[in-house]
Amino acid sequence: MANLKLRDARKSYGALEVIKGIDLDVDDREFVVFVGPSGCGKSTLLRMIAGLEKITGGDLMIDGKRSNDIDPSQRGLAMVFQSYALYPHMTVADNMGFALRIAGVSTDERDQKVKEAAKILELTHLLDRRPKDLSGGQRQRVAIGRAIVRNPKIFLFDEPLSNLDAALRVNMRLELMRLHDELAATMIYVTHDQIEAMTMADKIVVLNGGRIEQVGSPLALYNTPANIFVAGFIGSPKMNLLPATAETIGPDGISVALGGGSTMTVPVFSEKVKVGSKLTLGIRPEHIRIGQGDQFTGQVVLAERLGGLTIFHVATASGHSLVVQTEGADTTPLHTPISLHIDPGMCHLFDDEGKSLAKLN
Ligand SMILES: Nc1ncnc2c1ncn2[C@@H]1O[C@H](COP(=O)(O)OP(=O)(O)OP(=O)(O)O)[C@@H](O)[C@H]1O
Fold first, then answer.
1. Which domain holds residue 10?
2. Ligand 1, from 42, 158, 205: best to mutate by most atoms within 8 Å of Cβ?
3. Which of 38, 72, 121, 255 could be stapled to 248 by a disulfide with Cβ–Cβ 3.0 to 4.6 Å?
4. Burial of 162 per CB tally in 10 Å (0-12, 13-18, 19+)
């Protein structure tokens, strides 16, 4: 069993506070991913958990025990870094067994643990090699093996795949998911790659400026972002965000004017919104249909043809730029006049503070 709790966790460097009060629960066997823009504090938070950065306020609880001041080596955690940090002069087997040797584990037990980990990671045939004779992906597997042999309560990963090429990243991503399942392990994983976050996480933690914007399952964040920040951060291509003004408020929702004569009634509710309130309408690119309506007319100005799907950049007659995603290889040529349909039920409305308005049932 392994669980971890942060309560009002803070980190300051001198007068500069970079982690500003984090409350988070990581449950046993959960795969938790920290995402957020560069500099938001993902690595700092992970390093605070690992014990590599001192926590300057609040509590870190590991299995119910306050662990702020426990030595990193005694926390029962193992961290895998982006840089692998392998010892170049040691073989794969020695690299993997090093921490156990330092801990005074007998040679027999060490060999057995290294062999078990090598089998799980398909490194058995490489145990006698040195890191320089391995590919990037193999090196990263050795770094993960070094964590596995320690049988940690919780694995911590700091952007472990970002030095790998695109194809290898996909492979390693799948391997890590398999490993999480096979080891029934608790994992905390930092990345700026939202595909990694969406595909691997049980729970995503979206950080921004040292605070949590939202915590939830990948689909919860995708379908019901709490605010504009999360709406814009999760999802690729990004959600379209358009300025809107509340025109009427009724039992069917809030009617908004989108400029250029376009209006839409979005089935949401808020006591705070009044006629004239400034709002933002959000619609994901895959929820806009081409050639099925007259909410917007315009023309395609750019097309990203990916084979399985096509991403159109559309300039509307009302002066908006919209990104539209269609299934398959849509061959609509550039500059073709088109009309667009938006399903109001798929739209999000955000208030003037960027908070999401509740949907009507
Ligand atoms: N030793 C330090 N002294 C002062 N500020 C620091 C120190 N280490 C990190 N910071 C600041 O803390 C903030 C968070 O940094 P951190 O590395 O955790 O961000 P990150 O989200 O992991 O970013 P990235 O995705 O770019 O790695 C940044 O503004 C950074 O400049």
1. 4-233
2. 42
3. 255
4. middle
Q: Give 106's contacts (C-beta < 8 A, 6+ positions apart).
A: none
Look up the CATH number of the domain holding residue 30.
Answer: 3.40.50.300
What are the backbone angles phi and psi of residue 48, rounded to the nearest 5°? -65, -40
pLDDT in tens, 41-95: 999 999 999 999 999 999 999 999 999 999 998 999 999 988 878 999 999 999 9
Last residue in a domain, options 233, 249, 275: 233
Give per-residue pLDDT as tens, 314-347: 999 888 999 999 998 888 899 989 999 998 999 9
Q: Whose CA is nearest to atom 4 of ligand 1?
A: 13
Tell the residue nearest (CA) to atom 31 of ligand 1.
39
**What confidence score (pLDDT) does residue 300 get?**
94
Shared-domain flag, residues 268 and 171 = no
At residue 157's C-alpha, the angle toward residues 232 and 216, to 5°, is 40
Where does ligand 1 bind, in terms of residues with CB under 6 Å?
13, 16, 18, 36, 38-44, 192
pLDDT of residue 41: 96
